[in-house]
Every structure is written in structure tokens, then in C-alpha cells.
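W.,

You were right to be curious about this one. When I first looked at the sequence I had no strong expectations either way, so I just let the prediction run and decided to look at it fresh. Below is the sequence, 142 residues in total, followed by the output.
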Amino acid sequence: MMRFHSDKGAKEAVRFFGVALSGLVIDIGAAWALIAFAGAPDLIAAVVGFSIATVTNYFGHQFWTFSGTERRASLRRFMAFAGVVLFTLAVRLLTLSFLAPLLPGSGLNAPIRLGLAATVSFFVSYLMSKFLVFRQKAKSRV
């Protein structure tokens, strides 16, 4: 019985990573495109890319990652997820601001900065999503 629980947790973590990775591709791709082709500042580009990925990630997590939770989308859960995302975005932007002077420029350094900041925010996002937004309801023992 304990093995089933740990297998389920491992599968959930892998699914979370898969959804987050696809969101990251969308996120960094959009941000890098804005920096490289539109000359957007890092922080603006990061917010736009992050926002687009937020919507796709919510639906991916709701319907695939956390399959043990309620299977329908809800405004309440999306708003909770948006709160987690806003906190995660703050972590991402603080990390990005710290990295900007260390890796300046819009060439190869831009995706490196964005990727490192995204890695830090990934861990924050996973823990908060799992334990605050998509937590499973306790099953009653009857």
C-alpha cells in the first residue's frame, strides 16, 4: 500500500515536470522573442511569457498532473493557482534582477538568465501547487 502511494507521488512529480517544461518552453520562447525581436526589457518580457504559460499550465495541472483532485476546472482553483503564480513570478523576477548584472545582454545570456530564474521558481511553484492549490481531499475511513 505504501509503495502505491510513493509510485503515485513519483508519477505526479513527473507529470508536473512535463507540464512545467512545456510551459517553460512557451514562457522563455515568448520572453526571448520579445527581447530579441521587439527590444522589450527583460522584466516586461518575463511577465508576458510567464502569463501565457500560466494559463496553459493551469489546465495541464488541473486535467493531467493532479489527477486525484476534482476533474473539472474551477474559478476558485484558478484564482488560487493565480495567487501561487504571482508569488512565483515575484521569486522569478527577484532572481532575474539578481542575475541581470552577472549575465548582461540580449544574445545567448538572455535565455540563460531566464532559464536559471525559471529553475528557482519551478521549485516554489511545485510545492505551493501541490500543497495549496491541487491538494487532495482526505478520504474518510468508514
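Here's what jumped out at me. The first helix runs from residue 2 to 38. And, maybe more interesting for your project: Residues 14-133 form one domain.

Coffee later to discuss?

I.
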